[in-house]
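A quick word before the example. In earlier lectures we treated sequence and structure as two separate objects. From today on, think of them as two lines of the same record. Here is Uronate dehydrogenase written that way.
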Amino acid sequence: MIPKYERLLLTGAAGMLGQVLRPAMRTWATHLRVSDIEPLGPAVGNEECVTCDLADEGAVRVLMDGVDGVVHMGGISVDKPWRTIVGPNIEGVYNLYESARIQGTKRIVFASSNHAIGFRKRTERIDADDPVRPDSLYGVSKVFGEAMSRFYFDRYGIESVCLRIGSSLPEPKDRRMLVTYLSFDDLITLVQRSLFAEKADHTIVFGASANRDSWWDNSKAANLGWTPKDNTEPFRAKKEAEPPVDSTKPEHIHQGGVYVTFGPYE
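And the structure line, produced from the sequence above:
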């Protein structure tokens, strides 16, 4: 592939999914800038390594200098007390988008989450236009990010693809993840299509592999041209052989699983 981007930025590059994406993204741009608040290790090939606290507005402004496109995986990735989440996930998202406006960045791929709609029941099938139902403070922060990206597209024309990532792990951990699982290979192709699709506008896409069962309709993200290849059938027998769960408990009624039970923290 001839690189489309002169300089891509990957935030959260030290996290699990950042580490999955980092090698692939080196081939998608002339320069790949990787960033995290945690140690990044040595730069490889065309990489530029930058330590950055997303809540530091000035640092994010410098981080975004010369950046054409962003894959934003940074921030708190699990539910925590609000004071822990607000810096990286609220202030950090504002800092990123405002810096994109100032620096002229063209496109952002924002790691949202299924927890933005986690209080939906498992009996429902929804699409990107259905109202959000966050299941946690973490989910609320992802709804905020989706709203921020919508505003910056409508007002300033910055294209965004919001990835409502299901469960991207080496393999599903439980029965719920037979539905929400997103393989690493499918994650990589989803991010690639989100960056390279001719027209992204403001798109919300559900990040799940081609699993037998689904709560999510991705037809409104057809502009990305993404088709997942993997599924959870190789794991089904193992997971369905595990002890049965109590289907009357909230964590087994709602799509967000155990996240609907977290808190209050104060």
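Notice the following. The helical segments are 16-25, 57-63, 82-103, 137-156, 177-180, 184-196, 233-240, 250-253. We will return to this example when we discuss secondary structure assignment.
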